[in-house]
Amino acid sequence: MGEQPIFSTRAHIFQIDPTTKKNWLATSKQAVTVSYFFDSTRNVYRIISLEGSKAVINSTITPNMTFTKTSQKFGQWADSRANTVYGLGFSSESHLSKFAEKFAEFKEAARLAKEKSQEKMELTSTPSQESTSGALQSPLTAESVNGTEDERATACTPQPSEARAEPSHNALPFSHSSSSIGKHLEAELAALKGNNAKLTAALLESTANVKQWKQQLAAYQEEAERLHKRVTELECVSGQNTAVKSEKTELNRTIEELEAALKAKEDELECLKAEVQSANQFQSQRDSLTQKLQEVERRNEALELQLGELEQRVDANRREREVFRQSLRSLLQLLDGKIFELTELRDALAKLLECS
Asked: Distance between CA 204 and CA 210 in Å, rounded?
């Protein structure tokens, strides 16, 4: 069926700064939809978020991932494939908890799927190696790997006392369905039984190895999760220390900026003292500007008078329009009365015509 969404929520998306690895960078302008997807063809879970046509998050869930709640409404996880750390800011704590529960659920599902795929690969690779060594003795068929129906029946049920032993010491007892089977078939059957016994032993050994590997893998995963949590804690502590250092650096930079601004103000004060001496030159300019301002004010007064006249005209037009509307209403009423009288006159004439 392809990839289908199985859970969706909305959150603000952040990514760790690739240069400092400590500060968060907003990758979405607003809260966007974040969804869990399941690819049934590859048996893979992914977290995907789109803002328009841009993929903001495209993270494949692996058993080694851990979703960490850093506050009541914020959580994060590291994606080693994308070489980044994603952060999500939710509108409420319940949304964060629901997303974390789904993350743990799909992480466990991804772990089980990975173990199943590893078991299938190991089970298919081990018999193939054993069958290659046994191919020198006899050709392999479906019966040589799984055993014939008679072999499986005899392996599960006790054989009669009259069943005779086969030439090979590893062969299972076999009851002849007919006395007409030749010795060359017996020899071939013995070889097939020997191959089947070898494959069964190899399968049991590989199963034991798989269990041992599972235990080792679980121990490695627990150790990796513990180390990942420790790294996250150290990153939080380092982030706090870095924030203090950055604040101190910012304060020093602010002091330097203030000192530079003070020096600039002193230079500006000197310039102003020099400009005061030439202030008389600007007096004439101020007078001309004052005259222009007075002219503009007179023009504004003239425009205000014109505006008042226009408003009076608009009011007069509005009153005339109201009078005209009232005249039309009275004419309509008069016309309605006349029409009613004509209707009555028509009805009376019609009655007279009917009587005549």
From this structure: 10
Highest mean pLDDT pick, 33-37, 78-82, 271-275: 33-37
β-bridge pairing 74-79 and 84-89: antiparallel
Is the model's pLDDT at 164 over the cut of 60? Answer: no
Structure tokens at 307: 């505006």
Give the contacts of 70 (CB within 8 A, at least 6 positions apart): 76, 87, 236
CA atoms within 13 A on the CB side of 1: 8
Could you give the count of Cα atoms lying within 13 Å of 85 in the half-sphere of its Cβ?
Answer: 22
* DSSP summary character for residue 180: T
Q: How many CA atoms lie within 13 A of 144 on its CB side?
A: 19
Q: Which residues pair with 84 in a beta bridge?
A: 79
How much is the pLDDT for 267? 82
Helix (H) or strand (E) holding 336: helix 281-355
Instruction: Specify the DSSP class assigned to residue 48.
Output: E
Give residue 183's pLDDT: 72
pLDDT digits (tens, 9 = 90+) for 108-149: 998 998 888 887 777 766 555 554 444 434 433 333 334 444
Q: What is the DSSP letter of 66?
A: -
* pLDDT score for 238: 61
What is the C-alpha to C-alpha distance for residues 197 and 133, in angstroms, rounded to an integer?
Answer: 13
The one-letter code for the residue type at 40 is S
Say if residues 17 and 246 touch (Cβ distance below 8 Å). Answer: no
**Mean pLDDT, the chain, whole residue set:** 78
Locate 323 and state its tokens: 């009078």
Region for 343 from its dihedrals, namely left if φ exceeds 0, alpha if ψ lies in -120 to 50, beta otherwise: alpha
